[in-house]
Amino acid sequence: MNKLSLSLMSLILLAMIGLGWGLDGLFSKYTQQQKKDELAPYRQLGLSLAKTLAQHNNSGEFINNWREVNALPLSIFPLVDFPMPPELRQAFHAGEPLVLESQDSFSMSFIMPKKQQVLMLMLPPLPNDDRDGTLRIILTTSFYLGILFIILLWLYPLLKHLRLLRLSAKAFGEGNLGQRVKISKNSYLVDIENEFNNMAQRIETLVTDNKLLGNAVSHDLRTPLARLRFGIEALEETKSDKMREKYQQHMSRDIDEMESLVSVLLSYARLEQAMIAIEPRSITLAALIDDAVLNLATHTKKISWDDSHNKAKVNGDITYLAMLINNLLKNAGQYCHDNIAISIEQSTTQLCLVIEDDGPGIAVDKREELLKPFIRGNAQDQPQGYGMGLAIVARIAAWHKASIEIGDSSKLGGAKMTISFKQDAQ
Asked: Which residue of 116, 170, 178, 356 pairs with 409 in a disulfide if CB–CB is 3.0 to 4.6 A?
């Protein structure tokens, strides 16, 4: 919006100055030419009188006789008593008459170089010409019409972008959640268009997540609920203490499973609201990795941690970055056979957290899907979980303006997770 306001103010200011200067120059040129044409007869008269007096021995007698028979006052002054600006002196000495205008009259002076005198002819005020008033009205109207035309030219692309924004908002409101505004760098509404696209993306993500949450609740909660109902009915019917204890254990496990799923659902739902209030700060990534490795340490999994870039820092929230690293390591530990490798790759533009494993890897056509909530991997003989780990990683990475890439590990042969942060803090 600052760009819009500055552009409008600059346009109006430049248009007023440019048009005003141009029309004023045009009017001045016209009036000067008009006066020059009206004064042409007096100029010829003055030049003739100057030549005559230059040859006349008794100039004073000629002046007296002139005044007796002519209404135009005529005077003679010594050249030394006739001061003038330096910029007019050269033209005046070359024979060009000097025209001076006052509120009541005109005076036209002519040099007589041989006598070193100046002949001054006093002229009556020029009559007012109605054409000047008409020209002023025309030029004033042209000024305002010119300002209006320039503003309309400026408004056209703005109105065009507003129309496109309106159509996009209408399409989005009608259910086309993939609708986005095409942003131009020269647009005055680039901030609004970016905010609209961000809002649309956020709403689309929330709607998609709600659908996935609904599907998960309907699927993952129904199974333990059905088992729990069956257990209650069986518990009511059995009279054996041993079977009663068995059913109670099964029901307890079902309740624990439901509690765990509800906890995961609530945690994921709270992530969006929680990230609104975070205050990013510079964090040493190696310290978070050390804590995550310590928490995941087991006797069956070997974790190789290359801490050569232990000074590397990123801007972010320490709690959620720790959650991101823990989820990546838990995912690697869940699907690997024996080995996990962690490293940091740093360049001038970005810092990458790389976690690799020697598991079965992830098929190329499944990689994008696994970043969505409640999408599980298909590795055999592995606990399935709820499919939330990588979805949480993707969400936290997006909040920190980082990218996530799933690839194949050339070192261990399994999956390779790369989180790339913009390198804006060292």
From this structure: 356
